[in-house]
Amino acid sequence: MSGHDSKYFSTTKKGEIPELKEELNSQYKDKKKDAVKKVIAAMTVGKDVSSLFTDVVNCMQTENLELKKLVYLYLINYAKSQPDLAILAVNTFVKDSQDPNPLIRALAVRTMGCIRVDKITEYLCDPLQRCLKDDDPYVRKTAAICVAKLYDINAELVEDRGFLETLKDLISDNNPMVVANAVAALAEIQDNSARPIFEITSHTLSKLLTALNECTEWGQVFILDALSRYKAADAREAENIVERVTPRLQHANCAVVLSAVKMILQQMELITSTDVVRNLCKKMAPPLVTLLSAEPEIQYVALRNINLIVQKRPTILAHEIKVFFCKYNDPIYVKMEKLEIMIMLASDRNIDQVLLEFKEYATEVDVDFVRKAVRAIGRCAIKLERAAERCISVLLELIKIKVNYVVQEAIIVIKDIFRRYPNTYESIIATLCESLDTLDEPEAKASMIWIIGEYAERIDNADELLESFLESFPEEPALVQLQLLTATVKLFLKKPTEGPQQMIQAVLNNATVETDNPDLRDRAYIYWRLLSTDPEAAKDVVLAEKPVISDDSNLLDPSLLDELLANIATLSSVYHKPPEAFVSRARTAAPRPDDEEYPDGGETAYSESPSHAADAAPAPVTAAGTSAVTHAAAKQPAPPATVPAAAPVPDLLGDLMGLDNSIVPVDQPTTPSGPPLPVLLPSSTGQGLQITAQLVRRDGQIFYNIQFENNSQIVLDGFMIQFNKNTFGLAAAGPLQVPPLQPGASARTLLPMILFQNVSTGPPSSLLQVAVKNNQQPVWYFNDKISLHAFFVEDGRMERANFLETWKNLPDANEVTKDLPNAVINSVDATIEHLTASNVFFVAKRRNASKDLLYLSTKIPRGIPFLIELTATVGIPGVKCAVKTPSPELAPLFFEAMETLLK
Amino acid sequence: MAGAVSALFLLDIKGRVLVWRDYRGDVSAVQAERFFTKLIEKEADPESHSPVVYDNGVTYMFIQHNNVFLMTAARQNCNAASILLFLHRVVDVFKHYFEELEEESLRDNFVVVYELLDEMMDFGYPQYTEAKILSEFIKTDAYRMEVTQRPPMAVTNAVSWRSEGIRYKKNEVFLDVVESVNILVNSNGQIIRSDVVGALKMRTYLSGMPECKLGLNDRVLLEAQGRATKGKAIDLDDIKFHQCVRLARFENDRTISFIPPDGSFDLMTYRLSTQVKPLIWVEAQVEKHSRSRIELMVKARSQFKERSTATNVEIEVPVPSDATHPNIRTSMGSAAYAPEHDALVWKIKSFPGGKEYMCRAEFSLPSITAEEATPEKKAPIRVKFEIPYFTVSGIQVRYLKIIEKSGYQALPWVRYITMAGEYELRLI
């Protein structure tokens, strides 16, 4: 059916426009039509033919449908540039919208909606009104979309003329295509309006579910996408909806399948029956797998979505890892996404096979993919402790191939593995050192230097190795310089001999005098002062134990994840960003409440590695610099290896320098009250000042209950307090309010606290480091213990069914058990009552032989639940506590809290 | 939640606009063209770029077909899966109209292209992509009737894929059951992944509005009907149906009932993830006599029953890209060096079950190699074959009932064939 339209592109250049003008006004139909085609051809190649406007519009009144369509096309293109002349077309439009032929009626109303000229819009209303009630469904379905077009141009007009009501009536139309387009139009209008316009009631829901069976595949997508916003009233309704949507999983159209998955996942949130949920998970797995046989572009979208689904419900695809193995001919963007999902699904069970795959990929030719494969091996090592050794041996095999970028990438991930498992695998350092000369990338160099510094005492020629790097110190990038500085200090502290001493002097000199990088300079000064005043303290700082890292760098924040899951199949789910982050047109929709939590809307697709997790770890030395440095440090985070010290020290240094602005002043007095608190700073060490304090929870808020007792001989005033970075990011919500303390007097205050202010990464720790100062004394530092029960929130109660479901949905690896020898349950009822008062809620109990089993639930901020099983014999000390939670790393803290509560 | 695209572009291989349709008036063609040209210039191989790209407030999604890019530009959070699939359907429609979609055919038919773009999408929302029905009211004929057409009922009907009033003298249905075996064997000779993707391809030449019912040896159905699984019943992992199949009915009682489109279409596809024994096993021993020559010994063994025969077997064994002077001997079929694929291609027309054939090849290598040798691209051995009258899954069409109110008798013809899909064996 090939045409010969190309001839229209080759018109004579000279006098083209006048010639066309003449032809357009020809009395011969064929010549006229050819002329219009030439005009459209010219328009297509980007020539300006707007000057022919009147002549083209004059051809509009024709019986020839093809010609009419071409003229309409011309109008869409040029009406905007000739608004006054566009009016000329209105009459024909209005006439065409009443033509006996439905094709022409629809064409007229469709085209008018595309002409974005205000003057025309007014004339559009009457024809639109008619067409919305046309006898022919083809016209109605076109008119439905036209309402959205009109709303886009002039929303007020649409509302005034009552089009919205008519559009809503079309939801009950007997033609499924009309229903589908009405839904698409309404959904778009709703997106652009702050008012509730399109609310899905249970009545519309059932209508739409019926239409779903009969409309075209694209219409099914409109309907499913609109319905996924619907919140079912209860579990039963949710189950009913799901039942009617699941057949869509069998549809050949991938978009229908993905939108059905979205809707099912949304409703699953409400379904309490674990059987139903398990069944649904089982049903969704095969269709998700089949998406990977689709066209590569669709696979890509599917994989980005599967990434989200796996984060939310790891069980669905837990056994399907093989389908994510890369095929030789997969496009690179598909391979990258598959790799990411392979890491997520890697487990002790399948790691051997996965490692074989990674090894295979690491010898391919695409550099980015190879690097990601090497990095993947490292991330599996960090994720799966039992497989770490196998991962390392694969990395060593790869290093032996001596492909430069493989070696560099391997060294970067091995540094992370050393961070995760300190003092375990240093036997491989010798092999790493063989590749020293080939390193030319800053990150790889920095990693190697960190390894040398960290294990300086075990590398015989550590000083020689570092020295070879030092020669080029001034030319190195900042990342490497910082690393070299720290590593040299470490070497000196570990081997305080002559060689290192000379080295350190050279480095410090270089880093203080000859650099203009404030980060480097400040860090060097701090080391210098530490080393010159108190080498032992320097040791404590520089060689202190580091927090352990984990591989959670790619997991999304739960609230963002939920939002993205509600957007499955859309661009939002492809970008892993909420729609507001990239939709450019101004929207008046209600703002999301938790906007500020992810202002930049997530990470880019491929930039992740455990070392990034570590990047965010407290880099105390940098932070310890002056506050002037802080912003620079934030822009250029120090790599993990620059964390030579445990957390407290930097603040100490900051305070010593008297530059920390965040210390809050004390002004207003408060009255002391309440039971005795644990002593944190005895007066013997505090030059007469005794500080007792404890975290408490009151009225749903966390306070630091702190008491000061002045046993010294002088008046103390100007109290200020500061908290170091900690696992929960606890910080003071306001200034500390303590009156001047006379000798012998004491004051107690409740300092309101907020969470997630200055979060330290690394494994959770109960350590809370506090600094207090006043105008008379030096700064006092003391450690407190965070008791997790202060975080138990009031809405942690769980229904029984919900409890069971949550319990089953969490993998077994998330269950942690501990015996609490000092805890005791003297009476079940009293214990329940006592625990309820602390926001640990009773779910169920049963007796098993002589033992009582209690099931309880609690929740901490950010919605992390703890599902608890207590086993004990009444009256006999010793309680067995099992807990299952999405955050098992918090279990030790949780047990401490339970033991306190059950004492 | 809702979202539509702003414009659809058809671009040539260099990213220049051939034809575009502006649906919402909020993107500029110049900007899109500039962006996309830059994108494909930067990337030597445009296929390596992810098909969804964001630039300056606009999301571009694209696919490539021959020397044409199809691209949408969107400012909203539109349904990416739906739009990308829609682009593939647009390709299908153009192919139906112009036989092949390429730069030339778009130029030659730009008037119809505009008409189709207007009908397939409205305001950025996909509308209608059934080529067969579209061609009933958008025609390419130079002399189209001056009498105006009406939209075919099918455009808005519940049965949107078939027009009424179709007539054939002889009513026939051809049903091909085609199974593709996908297999991935790693360098240790372990099968790490295998599955079978099957398709029931139909060609219908039936009059009127025929009601069809298809019966398979589906275990779930047979057990539900209480028929003890005499003979072989099979479990299908994931079944996908053409939109003509009533999904709710299938969900209820596993009946496959439908009114078929006219002509050819895929009625259903299915997947079986059970371990499949490789039907043709290939081993290659590669001996590299450094810097002078390379010797290949390839063994191929058919591991299916003797009564079946594989046809058009093609085994592609990768060889180094700088190999020259091939010297090849085979015990069956013919083998040749295909330098454009860096491979030795061994073709065997007919390969009965339970047989083993050999192929030896020797190549010369240049004595000088680059200092910084980049790693060789490690392509796997790839195998193509077809085995007629055989399915791996054992699927059987038990019946295909066709009922039309005029009461004609229709003849169903069923064929079975198994072929290699992504059949890869990694070299050691």
UniProtKB/TrEMBL annotation, chain A:
Region named Disordered: 585-643
Membrane topology, record value: Peripheral membrane protein
Domain Clathrin adaptor alpha/beta/gamma-adaptin appendage Ig-like subdomain: 669-783
Residue ranges occupied by any Beta-adaptin appendage C-terminal subdomain domain in the UniProt entry: 792-903
GO biological process, one term: vesicle-mediated transport
GO cellular component, one term: Golgi apparatus
Keyword annotations: Cytoplasmic vesicle, Golgi apparatus, Membrane, Protein transport, Transport
Domain of life the protein comes from: Eukaryota
MF terms (GO), sorted A to Z: clathrin binding
Subcellular locations according to the entry: Cytoplasmic vesicle, Clathrin-coated vesicle membrane; Golgi apparatus, trans-Golgi network
SUPFAM superfamilies recorded: ARM repeat, Clathrin adaptor appendage domain, Subdomain of clathrin and coatomer appendage domain
Sequence similarity: Belongs to the adaptor complexes large subunit family.
Function: Subunit of clathrin-associated adaptor protein complex that plays a role in protein sorting in the late-Golgi/trans-Golgi network (TGN) and/or endosomes. The AP complexes mediate both the recruitment of clathrin to membranes and the recognition of sorting signals within the cytosolic tails of transmembrane cargo molecules.
Assembly and oligomerization: Adaptor protein complexes are heterotetramers composed of two large adaptins (beta-type subunit and alpha-type or delta-type or epsilon-type or gamma-type subunit), a medium adaptin (mu-type subunit) and a small adaptin (sigma-type subunit).
Name the UniProt record assigns to this protein: Beta-adaptin-like protein
Gene name tied to this protein: LOC109708923
TrEMBL record, chain B:
Entry keyword DNA repair: no
Keywords: Cytoplasmic vesicle, Membrane, Protein transport, Transport
Membrane found in the keyword field: yes
Domain MHD span(s) in chain numbering: 170-426
Superkingdom of the source species: Eukaryota
Subcellular location: Cytoplasmic vesicle, Clathrin-coated vesicle membrane
GO biological process: intracellular protein transport; vesicle-mediated transport
One of the Pfam families matching this protein, by short name: Adap_comp_sub
Gene3D superfamilies according to UniProt: 3.30.450.60, Mu homology domain, subdomain B
Chief location bin: membrane
Gene Ontology cellular component list: clathrin adaptor complex; clathrin-coated vesicle membrane
Family under the similarity heading: Belongs to the adaptor complexes medium subunit family.
Subunit annotation: Adaptor protein complex 1 (AP-1) is a heterotetramer composed of two large adaptins (gamma-type subunit and beta-type subunit), a medium adaptin (mu-type subunit) and a small adaptin (sigma-type subunit).
Annotated protein name in UniProt: AP-1 complex subunit mu-2
